[in-house]
Specification:
Oligomer: single chain
Number of helices: 6
Largest sheet: 8 strands, antiparallel, barrel
Shape: elongated
Strand content: 25-35%
Helix content: 25-40%
Strand order of the largest sheet: 1-3-2-8-5-7-6-4
CATH architecture of the largest domain: 2-Layer Sandwich
CATH class of the largest domain: Alpha Beta
Structural class: alpha+beta
Length: about 240
């Protein structure tokens, strides 16, 4: 049985000087025999109730432990906007629980915040195809993990690789979401599209630095897992 994550938005929940950077993510996993009904109901719900600053960008989860689910991203917002959002009204709640949720196996919701200083792409410079690496630091190792990401950011910048980094916010275990945005499509995953990571890393950080970086990752990381997601414009807000 697949997990059903109801995530507020797959985008940051970090607000500095009223700069929108909070993302609410909702993941839905429809019942196996109710996929068509779920898609119809969620499409109608998104396009009627999730407009303006509450728009949904809907992705299908193509691989990983949550494959077969749908991820709805709302935001970016400030924390003040999140605080004042409410439940979008009685009609919204009635439609959600009457028409959408009967087709759903499980849901989960969480918040994440965009970390501009760790990212090589602007928050709203989206792409239709993405992969996400979920990085769970060991207790007390968050800052060391951040330093490891900063070292890799230099490589992303030099390689013109679009990578957005988010941090969980009061939403389960501490983790970083490293989101690879494939501006040029999935061919960016081909081994020959860019030079090998080790070569690029040592060009940027010095000879022998890649092995030290791997050793640091091994020391500081509790767990890592990944997934691939594709934008579904038909199920997104218009």
């Amino acid at each position: 049985m697949k997990k059903f994550f109801f995530i507020g938005l797959f985008i940051p929940l970090f607000s500095i000087a009223q700069n929108p950077s909070v993302i609410s993510i909702t993941r839905f996993f429809p019942k196996n025999d109710r996929i068509a009904e779920f898609e119809k109901a969620s499409k109608n719900h998104a396009q009627k109730y999730h407009t303006g600053e509450f728009k949904w960008r809907t992705y299908s989860i193509e691989s990983g432990p949550d494959a077969g689910g749908y991820m709805m991203i709302e935001g970016p917002s400030t924390w003040d906007q999140v605080d004042k959002r409410g439940n979008l009204g009685a009609d919204h709640t009635l439609d959600l629980y009457k028409n959408v949720m009967p087709n759903v196996e499980k849901t989960a919701q969480y918040f994440i915040t965009y970390r501009e200083e760790l990212s090589s792409v602007a928050l709203t410079d989206y792409s239709d195809k993405i992969s996400v690496t979920h990085v769970f630091p060991k207790p007390g190792k968050m800052l060391q993990t951040e330093n490891d990401i900063k070292a890799m950011k230099k490589v992303w910048d030099e390689s013109k690789q679009s990578v957005a980094v988010y941090e969980s916010s009061s939403s389960g275990p501490n983790q970083y979401y490293i989101v690879y945005r494939y501006k040029d499509g999935l061919k960016e995953r081909d081994p020959g599209y860019r030079k090998p990571v080790k070569e690029r890393y040592e060009t940027t950080n010095g000879e022998g630095s890649y092995e030290k970086w791997l050793a640091s990752i091994s020391e500081t990381t509790e767990n890592v897992w990944g997934e691939m997601l594709f934008l579904n414009p038909e199920l997104s807000s218009k």
